[in-house]
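Structure in, sequence out. Go:
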């Protein structure tokens, strides 16, 4: 079977994970990387034995590229995904899928129209403990859900925000902790427990010289009478492991995701347990990201293209966290609850 030939757009922090994941995925091949900065691009290409191109259009024009990985600042996710789809390339986009739900819908429409596969990277869904908890919730082990919440008290330094001109800006990052760091934890909560129907939130810029939020707090209400919450900041020195709390009628599971620990306590019949898995968390260090999740994501993406099926995290799945992030921003601006889905 011929390999799926990838080009990577962007040669920054996360692009190296993509290069290594492609090289560790059977039937996948890295053909080229596009990055505007020549020194970075050439160094990346040398390190990963690939070809550097100065711009995305040149990469999209190549007939030996079947698929692209979008690893650029957030505001470029929409135009690059649409351009890639028009060029007939399959598209794998780093989180967040885009800045708004409207942009996600435009990406989904462009890929559907071109008949190319669209995937979004949320590698934490592939963690063994995430998968175990998902199965338990879906099969009713915890009973009917009553309360579902998540907290990510992370830390980012001022130097981190100075490390890229796009960071901390509304125009290029599209928001702060919510749309960048905490979107991983939010995506897990939504995937595991479903979408809320009402969001009431506040955001703040607490302790960084940035124009976007570094703290957010949201009350989540669900159609099944369930309550929940989501709290996230990058102002919590030194950065604490993120956790999710899932409370059901039969008992509860606390997923200390950032520690690789899942504990559960069921009432009748009584069952108490704890499971562990090696894990990394970006709580304190943005690059403390294990490669295993990206490899799992690439394996699924390549298999999906081959089988002409949707990947496990397709555009519809990638859009979910963007919808809640947008609802939180809208609620904070309006000082009012936001009803979902958007009209
Ligand atoms: N999944 C994860 O755990 C994870 C971790 C870090 C970052 N990310 C995501 O990856 C994306 C990139 O983040 P980063 O930290 O690597 O950013 P970065 O600033 O380190 O790198 C961005 C790269 O994009 C390049 N670029 C900018 N405009 C371009 C263009 N028009 N064409 C081609 N390249 C262009 C820059 O030159 C740079 O090489 C973001 O969406 C971010 O949220 C995901």
């Amino acid at each position: 079977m011929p390999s799926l030939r990838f080009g990577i757009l962007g040669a920054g922090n996360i692009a190296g994970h993509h290069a290594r994941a492609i090289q560790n995925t059977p039937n996948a091949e890295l053909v080229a990387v596009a990055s505007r900065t020549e020194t970075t691009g050439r160094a990346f290409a040398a390190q990963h034995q690939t070809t550097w191109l100065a711009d995305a259009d040149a990469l999209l024009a190549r007939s030996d590229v079947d698929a692209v990985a979008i690893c650029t600042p957030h505001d470029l996710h929409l135009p690059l995904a649409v351009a890639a789809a028009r060029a007939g390339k399959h598209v794998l986009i780093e989180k967040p899928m885009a800045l708004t739900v409207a942009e996600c819908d435009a990406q989904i429409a462009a890929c559907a129209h071109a008949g190319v596969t669209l995937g979004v990277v949320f590698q934490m869904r592939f963690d063994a403990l995430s998968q175990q908890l998902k199965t338990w919730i879906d099969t009713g082990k915890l009973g009917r859900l009553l309360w579902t919440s998540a907290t990510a008290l992370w830390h980012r330094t001022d130097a981190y925000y100075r490390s890229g001109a796009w960071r901390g800006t509304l125009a290029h990052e599209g928001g702060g902790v919510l749309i960048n760091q905490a979107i991983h934890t939010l995506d897990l909560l939504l995937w595991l427990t479903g979408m809320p129907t009402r969001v009431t939130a506040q955001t703040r810029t607490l302790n960084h010289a940035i124009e976007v939020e570094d703290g957010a707090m949201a009350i989540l209400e669900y159609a099944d009478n369930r309550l929940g919450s989501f709290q996230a900041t990058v102002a919590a020195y030194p950065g604490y492991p993120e956790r999710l709390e899932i409370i059901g009628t039969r008992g509860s599971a606390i997923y200390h995701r950032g520690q690789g620990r899942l504990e559960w306590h069921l009432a009748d019949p009584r069952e108490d347990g704890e499971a562990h898995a090696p894990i990394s968390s970006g709580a304190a260090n943005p690059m403390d990201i294990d490669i295993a999740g990206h490899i799992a994501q690439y394996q699924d993406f390549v298999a999906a293209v081959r089988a002409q099926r949707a990947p496990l995290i397709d555009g519809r799945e990638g859009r979910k966290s963007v919808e809640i992030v947008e609802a939180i921003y809208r609620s904070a601006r309006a000082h009012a609850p936001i009803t979902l889905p958007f009209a």
